[in-house]
Amino acid sequence: MLDQLASAIARHSDGLWSDSAVPRLALVALDELVAPLDLLYEPMICFIADGAKRAIAGDRSWVTGRGEMFLNSLVLPVTATFERVPYRSVVLRLDGRALADLLLELDGTDPRTLPSPGGQMAAPMTPELLDAVNRWVGLLDTPDDIRPLAARIESEILYRLLGSPFGPFLRQFALADSGAARVRAAAAWISEHYTEPLSIDMIAAVAHMSTATLHRHFKTATGMSPLRFQKHLRLQEARRQLVAGNTTAALVAEAVGYASATQFNREYRRAYGLPPAQDASRLRGRLAKARGA
Length: 293
Prior knowledge:
The chain has 293 residues and is of the alpha+beta class. The protein has helices spanning 2-12, 96-105, 127-138, 146-162, 167-174, 179-192, 200-207, 211-222, 226-244, 249-255, 261-272, 276-292; strands spanning 17-19, 25-30, 37-41, 44-57, 60-65, 68-72, 76-93, 120-124. The two termini are 31 Å apart. It contains twelve helices and eight strands. Strands 1, 2, 3, 4, 5, 6, 7 and 8 form an eight-stranded antiparallel sheet that branches. β4 and β5 (60-65) form a beta hairpin. 35% of the residues are buried.
């Protein structure tokens, strides 16, 4: 079934990341190793049919490979390294409402104690889950079936996931006032205001938590403090703008919220190993080489 899924992904992919006609379904396909990528994860589950990828966030990292799945429950800046290719995966964007509706239909919450507001987890796929994911992606071969069947198969996938090691985390994801939901709201708010001066008190107010509780739960969920999270967002966007060209490090530093170009240069070099202009030039060269290949 993994080979069947990998083949379907390759058949319907258009570049590294491909959105699809099936709601909340995206495909990832890569045939050659590339330099580490700065990505902004959204709440999602990634089902890996082939290859392996390492995701690094703050002080933590996760490697997931063929036959495994990876849960991320909040907006998160990561560095992704593809360790084995060809790489093929299916991405399910998490929908809290769909989860909540399914839990209501199942009439209950899990009696087990909910976990602390963690943000990421990896686990193997079961044959039953893999079969459902295959049928979900297979809808791309029969577009007329997408409207009547996509939501039903997605619901089956979520049902299977609730019975997996992800279950307690998904139940907490669906709760509107859980600790995970509050941390998720704080992370989303920072991602929308990352260019602005922020304080822990301000972010704690958004999350309706004390500053100590926010800091503890946020670090558990993301592997970094709220302000370090903001810094990663700023540096990722700065790098994107620099690689796109037609700008300077000083202008980019101001655009992403740095009051000091010196501080920006220092933090950028610490994160990426080179000064901004040199790093951007290196990345543009790699991209040009990849396109030429």
